[in-house]
Amino acid sequence: MKKTTVVLTFFAAAALIGCGSTSDYTPPADASGEQIFSTACTECHKPLKGDVAMILSEKVASKDALKNKFQNGSMRMPAFKNIQGDAADRLADYLLANSEVK
């Protein structure tokens, strides 16, 4: 039992290493929202189907809330501080146009 606890603790710690961290990804100036999503987000957020990138909760289903979420991160999501300005707008617009809200 003790061995199982140690193993589970190790895997839980390994899963949390990225939490609260910051990504140094900087999108190219001409990157579309879809390209930014594909490069920065799909490591954790796999598109659900061709026309649905994500399922968004109502509390992040606005442009400002989305930009705040990906720029500042959260407990489980790293911050993407370098997605700013027009690139941030393009990513937020892409997510709003290509996600379901629940």
Automatic annotation (TrEMBL):
Coiled coil: none annotated. The keyword Ribonucleoprotein does not apply. GO terms for molecular function: electron transfer activity; heme binding; metal ion binding. Residues 1-23 form the signal peptide. It comes from the Bacteria. Residues 28-99 form the Cytochrome c domain. Gene3D superfamilies: Cytochrome c-like domain. This is Cytochrome c551. The lineage of its organism: Bacteria, Pseudomonadati, Pseudomonadota, Betaproteobacteria, Nitrosomonadales.
